[in-house]
Known about the structure:
7-stranded antiparallel beta sheet; mainly beta; flat; 8-stranded antiparallel beta sheet; Immunoglobulin-like; 102 strands
Amino acid sequence: MSKKLLSFAVLISVLLFDTTCWGQQLSNMGRDFWIGYGHHVRMVNQGSGQTSAEKMQLYITSDVVTTAKVAIPSTGFEQSIAVIPNQISTVDIPRSAALFNEGLSDLGIHVTADAPVVVYSFIYVSAVSGATVCLPTNTLGRDYYSVNFEQLSNEANCSSYFFVVAADTGTTSVEITPSAATKGGRTANQPFLVQLKQGQVYQVLGTTNGNKGVDLTGSRIRSVNTGSGCKKIAVFSGSSKISIGCASAGTSDNLYQQAYPTATWSRKYIATPSLQNSYNFYRIIRPDPTSIVKVNGQVVPASSFTNNFYYQFSGNSTYVIESDKAIMVAQYFPSEGCAGNNGQGDPEMVYLNPVDQTLKQVTLNAMQPAGVNIRTHYLNVVLPNDTAAINSFRLDGLSYNNFQVVPGDNAFAYAQIPTQQGTHTLTCTQGFNVVAYGFGSAESYGYSGGARLRDLYQFAAVQNQYASLDYAATCSRAPFRLSITFPFQPQAIHWNFNDVLPNQDLLTPQYDSSWQINGKTVYRYTVPGWLKAPAAGTYPVKVIATSNIGDGCTSEVELEHDLVVTPSAEHDFSITTRACLGDTVFLQQLYKPGGNLAAVAYSWNLGNGSQSVLPNPSAQYQQPGTYTIAASVINEIGCLSDTATRQITINPLPQARFSVQGPLCAGREIGFVNESFISSGSIAGYTWNFGDGKTLVSNDVGRQIHSFSTTGNYITNLVAVSDKGCISMPASQRILVHAVPKAGFKIPGSCLRDPYSEFLNTTTLSEQAALRYTWNFGDANQSITNTDTLQNPRHQYRATGMYPVTLVVNSAYGCADTLVQQLYINGSVPEAHFSLLNGLRQCSDGAILVKNESQVDVGELVKMELYWNYGVDATQKTIDLLPKKDSTYRFQMPSFFNPANKQYTIRMVAYSGQSCYSVAEKTVVLDALPQLRFDTLPAFCSADPQYTITQAQLQNGLPGKGWFSGNGIQPSGFFTPALAQMGSNPISYTYTTNQGCTSVAIQTARVSASPRVNAGPDMIIRQGKTETIRASAIGQNLRFQWTPGTGLNNVSRLQPLASPLSDQVYRLTATTPEGCSAWDEVGILAPADVFIPNSFTPNGDGINDRWQIPFLMQSDGAQVRVYSRDGFMVYENKGAKVAWDGNLRGLPLPAGTYVYYLSLSKDSKTYKGTITLVR
């Protein structure tokens, strides 16, 4: 006898009235998942030029704090993560788990969690990504169909695929019937059986041909009983890369979706288009060919279903899809720029949820992993068109009510909501469906955001007196009744309560109710009498039903799980506050029903004479002290909690105080003395905010040091924090920070002979304040006069050497600065000397370069003056206050053409002090430059003859030599256009004087291409006839002119029609737009008629030896044939280039009469006559 093990939970609390499912609602939130690393194009195409390998990530989130573990048992991979409420925890799956090939592998990915979590799986690389929401093990079924799409991609070797993962322990037998041929050699529509252990995966890949492949839609995957029972399996479908909606392969993306078991399919779906690219594709999956399917109220003909299995349509509207039997609907986003969409995007596949498989709360992820170009995120929501439902809808805690009525079904409303990347929580008092999706440049993702996934045909239920929920609801020791519903009529039902309650055996059970679900009849069987719930706890319960249907899995159905009995509603509350005087105390109820049972009433005594009925009230207390808060709650199934009490002590605030120790100078340390206190308790810490953007947190009660980087008014605050966390009001003082003077003075250049050294004070201060100066000249030999307080003092030094000079500057606000500089008292005997690096004579366009070679007997030079035109222009001077030996100085005199040369006196004065200096002079001669004039050159044609350039001239008569250079030019100035480049040719004229001074003048020679013309061959045109002159020409945009124009139909046409009345010579001239021209002539003979001789005597006497027709040499189209009287052709010539000599093949013909035929051209008449050959 076969068995089937179905998991369920019975949640028992207080007495309610409604009949609901036994156990929590099954949804995409769970504690146990089996997943696979689906096929991707980069598993087959990662050769040269391809991007990096794809990656897989799991995104795990929850509405509670919990811990999750991801493991791949066969590889040893295991990772535990902390899950934070409403945040995404990411796990990178190693590529060793990727399903590269068709067939069996041990690569199942197992996710477990301590509390229910939501898991998303994302496979991506660059712009090829796909995502799916994952289904927990307790929602899985045993019968699935793969839903894919027509396989066309912009890359080769991309397959339609599906794979199955064994989720139960033991051996799972899976029957697979592929709808098309597979890469593993499986035949279309031929079932085969595979045996899987828990965590094993079997993948099927459709065959490919180039960038096309088979569509595996309609492949069936089901768990069958081969002796170990029917086990749960997980099935995923998709494509390694696919293009959708284009005539040829457009942008492509991978598809990756977890399939829903057929038991969760239903009869009504509402499909809403994507917001950015509204034109979508849809497939309606209908395994039962007798189903009547409607789209927006219109019946879909049975003939419209491909393979009698699915119906595909497309559009940009909202669609109501209905059937009298269970169906499934898939929605597809097309490739970017295809199917009339103009926005960004890429292919994606989403399995939609029916309107009766909904949730009231969904946590989902708007995805954006690194390297994936998703730019916009959206949510499509469908819910009942009920005012209360719409008003209760929340997105991340905020109300959203911009819903529209679904066209064709006003019982439902929908919204298309733009959102942002990240985790989002949606809630509503009534069930809703949501699709999450996003688009980028050639990129997309999409998945059903969450669904209730319950077996619509086989479930248990609980009834009690006060139930108001759609799941188990009763309290400890409360009476309740149990029932179970099957899609068949069992022969016996056995309830085993494991001694917690009396077992019940229904040997001939009679159903107490039956009804239709999706066209299938179900039957409910209720345990006789009322059962009393035991004490709170968890108890195993088993229901075994036997049947003679014999479908391989339902001959014996065994349901086994824990019976969870909850106590009366447990309640506690938390207090959130610093418990400081004046703070708001926030009270948060902590309701613990043992199940998802909402609280409906609250009672609070706040301990200060106030009460509240709010779920989470707040309170304030006016005096320090201890207060007692009491609270109780009633849940929605009537469980009244015990009264919870907590005490709260309201603590006093500390008093912050401080004083300031100056001087208050920018950039200098300032002391802040802490004088804070508290009435009771102690101060645990202090926070200083100095008002300049800097803060200090310290538990040091002592003096704090701080410096302000700039001057100004600063408000400094001190806040004290007590050991209970109570924060004082801030103590504030305004701090006026003054500027610090910047000490500065110039070191005089002094020698021993100077009467004194004078110091120029350059001290600055950024504010108005009096300054006080204190000098120390560092002269131990002059102790009496070694200090001074003048602003700009003087001091006489008695010996050469180094002296440290110190200046201390104090402002009126006590801000001070000190500067120490070294003064060297130099010797009194400097020696000025320099050299001219470019020599004593040079061209006027060159810079004069002077090298300093001066020195002093002791110390160093303190200044050097260099006069470049001494005695003439004193402004042409260079002063160096830090002269160094071998320093180089540069000066550029204005270049000139006249006179032939100029002389300049260079004078150097070297100082070792104010009164110690030395002078040196030298004279330099500058030569004039040649003055050139180069006038504009004429335009040239490439066929022009050689041209002598005379436009370049020397203007100032300096002796020397000049020459030309450039394309097509000889040094002597002969320019040949044919040797130059077409276009602009720079021509340089260089002239160098006998002194070696050079000038260059440049002009441009523009050369245009000359045309080439051929007037055609000479011709014979009989008077009254017209022929085309076969002229030709080479060149761009040529103008033509024929002269004379007599007898021509168009003198500006290259090939005119000619009909001369007399012999004529015509000239054709072709001219370019630049004015370059060429000409050629053609001669035309215009005889009135053709003269044909009627005899000739080829006897070798040189007279009339050949039969020759005049003018035929000029007629290329002429043809002559001569025949003997018996019709044998003895002579033929085209063009009449060779006259007839009376011979045939070199042998003389006999004398006699012969017949000739002559045509001047193919269009002219033929002349016929006789000719006599006389020997």
